[in-house]
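Usage example:
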Amino acid sequence: MAVGDLFDGYQQHPYFDEMFDSDGMPRPGWEMLAKALERTSIDTLRQRVKVFESGFRDRGITFAFGGQERTFPLDPLPRVIGADEWETVERGVAQRVRALEAFLADVYVGTADVVADGIIPNSVVRSSTQFVRKAWGIPYVNGVRIHVSGLDLIRDETGRFCVLEDNVRTPSGISYVLENRRAMARVLPELFSSYSILGVSDYPARLLNALRSSTPNSGSDPNVVVLTPGVYNSAYFEHSFLARQMGVYLVEARDLICRDNNVYMRTTSGELRVDVIYRRVDDEFLDQVQFRPDSVLGVPGLINAARSGRVTIANGVGNGVADDKLTYCYVPEIIKYYLGQNPILPNIETFRMWEPDHLSYVLAHMDEMVIKPVDASGGKGVVLGPLSTKQELLNLRTLIRENPRGFVAQRLVHFSAAPTATESGIEPRHVDLRPFAINDAGSIWVAPGGLTRVALPRGSMVVNSSQGGGSKDTWVIERRRGIDFRSEAKRVAQPTTESFADHLGMNPLELRKAVEGGGTGAQ
Amino acid sequence: MSGPALRLSIAHRTDYRYASYATSSYNEIRMTPANSDGQRLLSSSISVSPNALLFEFDDYFGTHCYCFDIQHPHNSLAIAANSIVEVSRAGYVGKRISRVELSHAQVRERYYEFLAETPLALASGAVRDAAQEITYQLEPEDAIGAVAEWIQSRLTFGKGLTHARTPAMDALAVGVGVCQDFSHLGISMLRSVGIPARYVSGYLFPVLEPERGLSTEGESHAWVEAWIGGWRAFDSANGMDHIDNRYVKVGVGRDYLDVAPMNGVYTGQGTDPPQVSVTMSVL
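Running the assembly step on the lines above writes:
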């Protein structure tokens, strides 16, 4: 292998290895990583990992796993995405969000033409537990319901990015993206000296801008708040982090009051009117008048306040009908229907269990499939056919027969793996990608990179943080001005004697910009 | 069968008394007669004491709603919904499609929402079997009649043993129920044999011969509409094969919960059930 010691003996992944191509050569972009880490030993890496893990713990960047607070382990080896690949992801995510926005508007304030025109069955829309009839008719003044999205992508056996799941309710994980970048820059500065990495630190400012531009009220200074379920929520760190980064109030339900369809925040100096609520509370807990009356996380009257056009709830109430696992099956058609375009990012082949021929096929091939309950998230209840016992599959078969709408089945994709620091050296581990996109009505901005989750146990394909996954800093390499990317990529693939940092001729100021991510920060 | 148009005034009053007081209260009310379906809404108003700002909208199922909140301590809450409506029904004038047509996939798709089970209208295996048996080979309209008859033989009208949120099967087990229970049971049985059915909330003028000037205690009422090519209404709680001009429709839903007359939350100490009175007069 034409790269440094660290990767000597690395057994690349037999399907799609993120770093090495089938000839064992580093893919475009990765060559630089290999070079930069040439003189770094695995022990040094491990040592540094310990340092930033304890830093995460000290700062409370944790999630709940099996009843314990754990850090989300950050792998010291970043994942690199080339500029042209990234452009596909960016365009594909934006396209998908745009189509799902049109779909939500159609079913919540429109006449559900998408159903009338036979694109998606009426029963799929109306049977979704996430189709919120109480949200019907709520206006969104700038047309945005998906202020923030976090689609889950994987790369299939050929390296093509595919959409595994849509997530347009309250996707979490962006705080890891921002914190991972900071940690990497501090702990492995040598990596940043060889790269020009697109920055992610714009995110809070972009989010704030999108939230402000969704205000239904006049006035130049809309009051945006972040509504959190509270300190016991597994994503509380992220809620407080985003509020702090945006410079807005972090509130809990008890801090808000609805009066005459206006929403006010109780402060020590009196009540302050609220224009936009970035809520991280699920629909069913949001308003005791409309949903669960026993909720302690909700604000009575919130839904009708939104309906009256005095406050914007972001993301939109009822968005879950768009990321329902059944709706997912129809998203390629939904894209064609609303945008007249072919999907840029394909779906994973998915079987619709309520169609008899699909059902019988799945039941005959359960041991080759991934079967997911429709109404669960975080990887809960997902059954990997090849790893299940006969008895487990028999039990599942009964459940599917009782409730075919309750499940979808997908072809088991041997998705890509990237080199990861493990107890036994650098080994390939499966990775997915959750790019975060912000819709401010003017444009859909996809934060470069996003969250790469990695399945840490050898052979595991479960990347969820709630099931013991870790994460990687995700780098999108900047396309250099005046240089055709393709020719650059070709050149990088050739062995070169000069270090890439020299090659780029980076000055310290640019380096700092690369490290900080560039752009403007939040006020 | 429906007689001349009937002009009715409806005064629906709801009184809550709180043990000490409520500090805040949020409510959504569905008490306005529909202005369609053989009904002409001539006037309607809602008044609330203590005073509150009212906000109006039409919900997902097309029912007219008012909502309001009260944010200061109050020991009682009174809601008065007054309306005048003219009812002139021509009996069922919709299409009557065949059993076979009703089973077409297109129909089942289109009316999916009124074919799916809900927690309040969920037929047990035994009730499904009974529904299958009594409607076997019957055309849809006759199936409705068979279901209504079956319900009347199993359920006796009686207050106090069930409440608005009692599932149909629980009421059936007791053998006694009110109009909600008759409706939920009918809906669950019809849906189980593939006939779309929905819950109707409204009012009923209880005297069979409504004479001008007659004023009487009326009631909030519920009945069923089943789809057989059009929405065909019946009221098994009163043994009515059709609804006549004495029935005033407010709105429809999958079950009671979609169209409850009063829905709200308050902060404060416990309250007794509200005092509800409906006064209906023939104008």
